[in-house]
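User: Teach me something about this protein's shape.
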Amino acid sequence: MGWPKLLVLVRHAESLGNTMTVDERAGFDMSSHLYPITERGKAQAAVTARWLKETYGDFDARYVSYYTRSKETMRILAPGERIYEDPRLAEAQRGMYHVLTKQQQEECYPAELERKKREGLYHYRPFGGENWPDIELRIHSFLGTLSRDYDGQKVLIVVHGHWLILFQRLIHHYAIEEAMKRYHGGVVENVSATVYEGKGPWWWPWRRDRLRLVAENIVPWRGIVI
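Assistant: First, the predicted structure itself:
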């Protein structure tokens, strides 16, 4: 068992949900996982696709979540290539907060909002949703797949913003406070790339690390797509 020699994590392209406010999404008659990418998102992905090809060539494996925006992004990044769909890559499930506006939450579930305040964002699990440790368990499981199946290979994954924050928390052993800071500071750009290399030969000083960060939040389309 080992680690991919190259792991590239690309956040999905701009989706319909990215163009709406939280309350607009809650009142919109479409499940969050079905949001398609926008025309602007397609243009973003096309630029990043060219950059990936020129910079890293071909990949041995490509993974997406079952979300429409993730799959549509990968079809532009890797047209015609085999794609693996894995539910462990899904974005955080926020349960009732996907379908209730802030006013509806306050009117219908005041006690639940108090529970959220008391337990804190990391620990709190909303009705029908997940808390952050739930997501981290999914990520732990997926890391096992990467280690078992892709030793020495090149892997491309289209990810979601919140998922990526927790992936990096596990890889870099961030404290919960650091993950919270990153979350409140805003997610990474759409179709931006975060790049890791797997551990190298026995004599490399960072051999004990599972994955070594090479670059973070690269935005190939910036200045090209408006």
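Now, about its shape. The helical segments are 22-27, 39-56, 68-77, 102-108, 110-119, 132-149, 161-172, 176-184. The radius of gyration is 18 Å. If you'd like, I can walk through any region in more detail.
User: That's plenty for now, thanks!
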